[in-house]
Amino acid sequence: MNMFMWASKKLSSHNIDIDALSKDCLSDEGHISERDAGYTFLWKEIPNGKERNGAVGFDVQSGIASQLELPQGFTNIGF
Hints:
This protein has helices spanning 3-13, 62-65; strands at residues 18-21, 29-34, 39-48, 51-61. The protein is built from two helices and four strands, in the order αββββα. It is 19% helix and 39% strand. By secondary structure, the protein is an alpha+beta fold. Strands 1-4-3-2 form a four-stranded antiparallel beta sheet. A hairpin with a 4-residue loop joins strand 2 and strand 3 (39-48). The longest helix has 11 residues, at 3-13.
């Protein structure tokens, strides 16, 4: 079982629609849908040269994710 399927099953068992991830092990940006479990994983890394500076990810129930636009960028809010 891959990590996306495992996470989807955990979220589903707790009836969670959206989950924000503060630490993400994936680089660049993208999305993966786990159709059997019903979740879509979205992630985007903040580029900073060659180092991984930071990343954010969301697990979203696929029924909700299909109605949303994919993330387009970042806003600097003074961190």
